[in-house]
Amino acid sequence: MMLRPLSLLVSLSLCVPLAASAVEFSAAELAKASTLQRTLLTLDSHLDTPANFARADFNIMRRHDHNALSQVDYPRMVEGALDGGFFAIYTDQGDRSRAAHLAERDHGLQRILQIHEMLAANPDTFQLALSADDAAKIKAAGKRVVYISMENASPLVADPSLLSYYHKAGLRLLSTVHFANNEFADSATDPKGAEWKGLSPAGKALVNEAVKLGIVIDQSHASDAVFDDLIAMMPVPFILSHSSAKAIYHHPRNLDDARLRQLAAKGGVIQANAYGGYLVDETKSAERKQAEEELEKRLGGWEHMTMAKGVELRKAMAELDQKYPQRKATLEDFFAHFGHMLDVVGPDHVGIGMDWDGGGGVTGMEDAADLPKITAWMQRRGLSEAQIANIWSGNVLRVMRQAQEYAATHATP
């Protein structure tokens, strides 16, 4: 989801709701879930954690809980039995001027360098994964899995040929757009509405090139018309790396049941998202919005905060919760979306993409350490171990395997 204004980010995962989540698990249930989950390959398809790599006082090997800026680090990955996932190169949408496109190009290159610097600094703990089969091998070696994804293709606008470089540097998942329309596609949430009525000609060319390279396409954040274009044009399945169900909450970022069924028929996967604003209506009062804007100004903005300021931010938000309480998404709301998608398309077409470190998290599941609650819920539901394994990683890796096999068999001599 990253990067959003601080006033949006902090209001989505850190506030106390008006009513607590009704979903609770016993210690025995969580122990059983954790035991199973540690035997499985557990991947999250959308981790915005690389945004923290630019912070001088962030160390992924240290625990940073009780901090508004961090939900994923190695200690909490171990506690939550998270083996890794797709670490996102997120670039904020600029004004679409030439200067903005060049700045976005440079930002994307800097972010992938930061991911590689993290890998180089922690070679015994994290390892880059390049193929669908790499993840299991990395887990077997006792390390955490790092796939690289790109959320918002704006870094490629100035020079689309950079896609080949990103692929060589490890990119395996690509989304075209974010909060606002860009040169490749329409966003689901641009207030100006559709510009291209789906993918632009440049967007279709980018998707085709990604298919040739074996890069999986991610539809999250793009408009329904982009979804329809992908269904019509792609020879392989695609995923939604962090999305929810429109039937449960009618938000433009969510997917309706008819398209869920089309996605499944194509072989694709929707990864359940925990971004509260897409799960329930979290509309704030005018007073709260103003208070958050003042807090953002005082702390210097999300992008420039240190981890130390993240602790201050969490405390300040707790004070705002008392002064301006609001409806907040809960674990029960997450399971409503997750369960609905399972009902509609079944466990072979649903996965997990929590949006950690990008606004994700709900009351009752606030960071990566809480992930066994999802496994406990799936066990309560009666899903088999094989089905749970597919939801945690098998489904998304199947899509990657299909994309890579298609690219290999259709490579130009």
What is the CATH class name? Alpha Beta
Main beta sheet: strand number and arrangement? 6 strands, parallel
Task: Give Rg in angstroms.
Answer: 20 Å
How many domains? The number is: 1
Low-pLDDT stretches are: 1-20
Order of helices and strands: HHEHEHEHEHEHEHEHEHHHHEHH
How many helices? The count is 15
GO molecular function, one term: metallodipeptidase activity
Protein name: Peptidase M19
Organism: Stenotrophomonas pictorum JCM 9942
Keywords: Signal
Structure, briefly:
The protein has helices at 6-13, 27-39, 74-79, 98-121, 134-140, 162-168, 201-213, 224-233, 257-266, 276-279, 286-299, 307-323, 331-345, 372-381, 385-409; strands spanning 43-47, 84-90, 126-128, 144-151, 171-175, 216-218, 239-243, 269-272, 350-352. Helix 11 packs antiparallel against helix 12 (307-323).
Task: Describe, in plain words, how this protein is organized in 3D.
With 413 residues, the protein is of the alpha/beta class. It has one domain: Metal-dependent hydrolases (TIM Barrel, Alpha-Beta Barrel), CATH 3.20.20.140. It is 44% helix and 10% strand. The protein has 15 helices and nine strands. It has helices spanning 6-13, 27-39, 74-79, 98-121, 134-140, 162-168, 201-213, 224-233, 257-266, 276-279, 286-299, 307-323, 331-345, 372-381, 385-409; strands spanning 43-47, 84-90, 126-128, 144-151, 171-175, 216-218, 239-243, 269-272, 350-352. It starts with 5 loop residues before the first helix and ends with a helix. Residues 1-20 have low confidence and may be disordered. Residues 1-22 form the signal peptide.
